[in-house]
Amino acid sequence: MQEETVKNMILGEDDDYVVNMGPQHPSTHGVLRFEVSLYGETIRKVVPHCGYIHRGIEKMCERDTYPQIIHLTDRMDYLSAHMNNEAVCLCVEKALGVEIPERVTCIRTILDELNRIASHQLWWCAMGMDMGALTTFFYGLRDRERILDIFEESFGSRLLHSYNTPGGLMHDIHPGFRKRIVDFIRYFRKKLPEYDQLLTDNVIFRERTEGIGVLSLEDAIQYGVTGPSGRASGFSCDIRKIEPYGAYRKVSFHEVLRTEGDTLARYKVRIAEMYESMHILEQLVDQIPEGDYSAKMKAVIRVPAGEFFQRVETARGELGVYIVSDGNKTPYRIKFRTPNFSNLFVISKLAPGHKIADLVAISGSLDLVIPDIDR
Amino acid sequence: MAVNIYDFTELTRNIGSGLQRAMSPGWARATEYVIIGLAFLLFYAVTGLYIIYGERRICAFMQNRLGPNRVGPAGLFQTIADLIKLLTKELIPIRNADKLLFNVAPFIVIIASFMAIAAIPFARGLQALDFEIGIFYVIAVSSLGVVGILLAGWSSNSKYSLIGAMRSGAQIISYELSVGLSLLTIVVYSGTMQLSGIIESQANGWWIFKGHIPALVAFLVFLVASTAETNRGPFDLAEAESELTAGFHTEYSGIRFAFFFLAEYMNMFIVASIATTVFLGGWMPLHFGLNNTFNHVMDIIPPVVWYLIKTASVVFVMMWFKWTFPRLRIDQLLTLEWKYLLPINLVNIVVVAFLCLMGWHF
Predict the structure, then answer these.
(1) I need a labelling partner for A298 at 20 to 30 A (CA). Which of A92, A228, A289, B125 fits?
(2) Cβ count near A288 (within 10 Å)
């Protein structure tokens, strides 16, 4: 009853208690600001304000050559750095019509999935923190460290990889790559059930997430909410299935779909995706073909004049890269369709009627990475 | 004068009479107060600092980390260094804050917990205030702290602080009922409100063992409700750092913040002490059966040590709560109290009254 009346109230009245959550706030995970109108503890209206970390990446790309652009894409969704790199590379390779060695596609897909697991682990840490369970943070980081070690060994950096180049990889993988991944899967298969024991099955956690912030399928499609957040509402939007790229054609995996659309569903989709990612890794890790780690590319890459589009599935949803080229070594215009931008604005639809603590839980379950929103 | 480490009655009486002989009654009394005050001040600061240190080590242990281990042996002086840092920090004046209330609030919080500690029996005869209505006094005094929290939230002139303070007001006043009622269960059993009397009534067994199921229920309810009353996680809604940055003490800095921080940990110690006193036999040693070697060995351990072990165990359980559970939402918090804990408590107290009336308890 109260929920309905609150929703029907005219927003922005004089007696609204307006609280700014952010830009400096522990639960926004970055410089994001929610302008929240409160009625007691109940939220009447949420207006997200972004742009605090806008760096003009799209404009900077017009100045840079294609291999240089890769390094900028790391800085968008830093937790899916490898997927971002791959999106640009795939788009350029498509435009040039280059044949990519099998080895490269296989390694790229393995890294995609490792990166997805690492990203979901960090999301799980932050989600627990948002709900007040501080211990989750250290459990998640403990396991994420293993993946970062694999990254570090093969390409020197842990977070911002820049390992892809148009046409292939920067250099070959480390000899211990395969063994490290096999070890990690064996380790993480044992540790992942701990996540459930600590948080998923906790009665307080259930109470706080079940039925909170329900996103309907219509809204998910209307707002363009993709990735695990969209799939929790039953929106089948996995690019790996719809438009398979890399080695996804060759592996079998399930697109995790749920229909509830609440915070718990979004949570469970991500946990299930970690299992799926491990399943994909298990299929690929023993079948890395021998061969070159890069196709033969010209020293200066000039994309033929025209418009090119490529989308990939990052850990947060659909990332689209749209390149307009006039035949030069730099793009004429480049546009990134980043998943977080669409995922963020649905919060003004989800939060009203809930308590202020739920806003934190909902924004946690949407898994926002702020630099990806602003670019 | 031989000091008996098992009974402090003689010691305190000797000190009292020694002072009486040395000076006029008025001065003797004043000196006694000063000694007791200084002793408690020292105890308060040291215990507070080491509970903070303990919490940091324990949560580190639960979270796969090491915790403070650099300052002094095993990091033992870390919290002292932190205290010095807080003491020397600038007190940031808040514009448009209610200056008087803003400055008074931390003192109210710390005085409330300081008053409660006076009634805690550490061993036989080692208790500053032994009222006949000891339980009543402790409940009354420990709920004074909420005034300080409300004032802190109100006077800060910050929206987060106000929300935190209002939450804390609703929370502490609600959980006060459960704390009081669960303690009353044992008052009905033991027939006295005097804290030393309650401990004496447990000479042949702690209430949690000999009080049938109702005592166990009361203990669990007390544990939950007192965790909520001390504003600790999973009930730390008044601070809720992921929602309200720091709740009621967002705007406080330096030593004023330290007061809130210290008071929080001392409140935890106080409720653990009360749980020990009322449910776990206070400073009584652990006994099994009537007359055997095990009991004699247990008797050798001094009562103060017994008291500290039991209190530390309860404090540990409360820390365990905090580092395992996610935080509740405010409506769930109030639902838990008014729809579950309070009815359970009321039924429990009727059952206990019935048990006592029929004479079925030990």
Answers:
(1) A289
(2) 17
CB-based contact A6:A353 (threshold 8 Å): yes
d(CA B225, CA B233): 12
d(CA A238, CA B111): 59
Among B241, B323, B326, select the one facing A204 at the smallest CB separation: B326
Alpha-carbon distance of A137 to A121, in angstroms, equals: 9
Q: Please, what's the b/e burial string for B55-77 (b: 16 or more CB within 10 A of its CB; e: otherwise)?
A: bbbbbbebbeeebbeeeeeebeb
Integer Cα distance of B21 and A48 in angstroms: 74
Burial group, residue B357, by CB count within 10 angstroms (0-12, 13-18, 19+): exposed
The whole-chain average pLDDT of chain A stands at: 85
Contacts with B127 (C-beta within 8 Å, 6 or more apart), sequence order: B119, B120, B121, B195, B196
Q: What end-to-end distance do the CA atoms of chain B give, in Å?
A: 39
Burial label, B356 (beta-carbon count in 10 A; 0-12, 13-18, 19+): middle
Tell me which residue range forms the domain holding A157: 54-374
> A337 - beta bridge partners?
A320
Contact between A369 and A77 under an 8 Å Cβ cutoff? The reply is yes
**DSSP annotation of B66:** -
Asked if the C-beta of B243 comes within 8 angstroms of chain A's C-beta atoms, the answer is yes
The pLDDT assigned to B323 comes to 86
C-alpha to C-alpha distance for A58 and B339, rounded to whole angstroms: 55
Q: Which residues of B177-200 are buried (b: 16+ CB within 10 A; e: fewer)?
A: bbbbbbbbbbbbbbebbbbbbbbe
* pLDDT tens digits for range A112-166: 899 999 999 999 988 888 888 888 888 888 889 889 988 888 888 888 888 888 8
Tell me whether residues B332 and A207 touch, CB distance under 8 A: yes
- Tens-place pLDDT, residues A239-280: 888 888 888 888 888 888 888 888 899 999 999 999 999 999
For residue A117, tell me if it sits in a domain. yes
Tell me how close the Cα of B330 comes to any Cα of chain A, in angstroms: 8
Q: Could you give the CA distance from residue B341 to residue B323 in angstroms, rounded to a whole number?
A: 22
* Helices B25-62/B9-22 angle, 10° precision: 140
Which of A27, A133, A138 is opposite residue B65, by nearest beta carbon? A138
Closest chain A C-alpha to B63 CA, distance in angstroms: 6
Domain of A168: which CATH number?
1.10.645.10
- At residue B356, what is the residue type? C
Report the C-alpha gap between B231 and B270 in whole angstroms.
13
pLDDT at B289: 67
> pTM of the full predicted structure?
0.84
The answer to whether position A229 is within a domain reads: yes
Ranges under pLDDT 70 in chain B: 1-6, 289-291, 360-362
User: A29 in a domain, yes or no?
Assistant: no
For residue B4, what is the DSSP state? Answer: P
Query: Is residue B248 within 8 Å of B239, Cβ to Cβ?
Result: yes
Reported ipTM: 0.79
Domain count, chain A: 1
- Contact list in A for residue B62 (CB cut-off 8 A) is 135
Question: Does A313 fall in a domain?
Answer: yes
Which residue(s) pair with A50 in the sheet?
Answer: none
> Which residues, 6+ apart, have CB-to-CB distance to B325 below 8 Å?
A132, A133, A202, A204, B233, B234
pLDDT at A340 over 60: yes
Q: Say how far apart CA A370 and CA A27 lie, in whole Å.
A: 12
Local confidence band at A13 (pLDDT 50, 70, 90 cut-offs): low
To probe the interface with B, which of A21, A38, A41, A195 has the most B CB atoms within 10 Å? A41
Contact B329 A139 (CB under 8 A): no
